[in-house]
Amino acid sequence: MTGFFRIAVPLLALLLAAVPAQAKSEKYVIDPEHFSIALLVRHIGYFDLVGLFTEGAGSFVFDETKPEVTDIRVTIKTESYFSGHKKRDDHVRSADFLNAKEFPEMVFVGKSSEKTGDRTGKIHGELTFRGVTKPLTLDVTWLKSAEYPIGGGLFGGKPYVTGINARGALKRSDFGMTYAVDNGLVGDEVTLIIGFEAQRQDSK
């Protein structure tokens, strides 16, 4: 028996070392330089006007082995709205629409996630906007997770990066933004589009 244990114990240790460590949930921070936030709204029924928010931030916890996303929080600066037309942008930022002066932030907080495919899912959460909080579901596509080919990330070195696209729909009237809804000059339904690269916090 002594000889058996002399062989078996090192062999067992070798086998255990060969088993990959179980992946764990990791915190990711959205890279503000690779963060696109857009609103699509129907203009007098003719076309969907695209407006961008140029400032935002966010973070989440992601376990890519499941995949599962938790602790999601995305903040959008309403004053940063831009559509390429100054007069229109000033109006959109006004109390008729975003009311950016009184409510400088739009905040989405994820409450739960639901897997719908290998790389797709739904994030169920709440959007707080113009002092009102309403449910919002985002359809999410996980595009890629890998070491970034370019150095100098948020945490130095070549970061480990996850890329995600998300889209959801809301009614602006639900948030008290009723200007031009009744006459149909501006659509009530708004599509929110979010795309970003997020860097794993422990990236080196």
Fold blueprint:
Elements: H1 2-18, E1 26-43, E2 47-53, E3 56-63, E4 68-77, E5 81-82, H2 86-93, E6 105-115, E7 120-129, E8 132-147, E9 160-171, E10 186-200
Antiparallel strand pairs: 1-2, 1-3, 1-10, 2-5, 3-4, 4-6, 6-7, 7-8, 8-9, 9-10
Account of the 3D structure:
- This protein is mostly beta strands and 204 residues long.
- The protein has one domain (20-200): Lipocalin, CATH 2.40.128.
- The protein has 2 helices and 10 strands.
- It has helices at 2-18, 86-93; strands at 26-43, 47-53, 56-63, 68-77, 81-82, 105-115, 120-129, 132-147, 160-171, 186-200.
- The chain has an 8-stranded antiparallel barrel with strand order 1-3-4-6-7-8-9-10.
- The protein is globular, with a radius of gyration of 23 Å.
- The model is unreliable at 3-22 (pLDDT under 50).
What would the keywords be for this entry?
single chain, mainly beta, 8-stranded antiparallel barrel, 2 helices, 204 residues
